[in-house]
């Protein structure tokens, strides 16, 4: 679940990530305030059920679902806080290295096919695109 959330977060821009972080922090604060507010009623409910001796499978199932939901929300909140979209991340550096290797390979193959070295290829590209007239 956390891996899916992180990949979804990395697929969006910084504004959306900041927005998701604010939402996650608000939801965490809301969960904590609800937990404090309902702790007394839940404690009373649990004590009542235990005194009566009516711990049913349905009651256990409901409590288990609540626990699963709570821990999934905690995992999601942690993933949002720890995610880094921009900057020096391992994934970004691997992609930069791959693109650099690809560019050098294309430059070497073009040099082999045309006989024009890599520097002259760059000069020719700049001249053809009209950026500067530097090719002799």
UniProtKB/TrEMBL annotation:
Highest taxon listed in the record's lineage: Eukaryota
Protein name: High light induced protein like, chloroplast
Gene, per the UniProt record: HLIP
